[in-house]
Amino acid sequence: MRTTNLALWQGMISHQEYFTRGQLRIVHRSRDRAAKMVSEYYQVAPREWLKMPYEVRTLRSLDSSEVTDEALAQTVCYAFKRQAGSVVVKEGDLFRICLQDHRILGAMRDLQLGLGSLLTYVLTHELIHVVRFGQQLQSVDLPKELRSREERTVERTTQAILAKAGDPGMGRILRDTCGDSLP
User: Fold this and answer.
1) Which of 64, 85, 117, 126 is deepest in the core (most CB within 10 A)?
2) pLDDT per residue as tens digits for the range 70-82
3) Every domain of the chain and the residues it spans
């Protein structure tokens, strides 16, 4: 298991809070919007996404090892192998974007942000990691001392993509994540 964190608003959360059904619909819309923008930026064709399979999971469906109180989301890479008997049909990496509902909802309330804008930001950031890892632009097993540089690169790309999103709520998120607040 290999991990990357989006460690924006730091702090500990003592209880777990889950997205409601209505909020899950916003998660799905935000995922689709982020995927479209990342695809356009990197010019990723649908067939290329098949080589970089990913899934988005929320807190309720995460394994305990995928839960963190230190980030809004993290992308975990799992190796997989599908077999039919002894024949390997397919093998590769599966990227799991693990949304931390409790952290996202807390940040939304504390910073008075719209959930759709915040989720679009978080998912855009994590999908950039998926593309960078999936297209081998960056190693998934990056040494700890190089991770902050990778996060800054991903953050700059996130800002470049979202600056063109035309979302009024995004401007504040982008301003709040510039400069000194970068991990």
Assistant:
1) 126
2) 899 999 999 999 9
3) 2-181
